[in-house]
Amino acid sequence: MATEVEQHVHVQTHDGIGLIRLNRPEKMNAIGALTRQQLAEAIKQAERDDAVRVVVLTGSGRAFCSGADVTEMVEGAGLRTPEDVGNVLRNEYMPMLTRLRTMPKPVIAAMNGPAIGIGASFALACDIRIATPESYLLEAFVNIGLAPDGGVSWLLPRLAGTGIAYEMFFTGKPLPAADAHRLGVINRIVPADQLEAEVRELAGHLAAQPRGALAGAKRAVTHALESTFEQALEFESYLQEAQAASPEFAEGVRNFLARRAAKQT
Question: Which CATH superfamily is domain 9-207 in?
Answer without folding.
Answer: 2-enoyl-CoA Hydratase; Chain A, domain 1 (3.90.226.10)
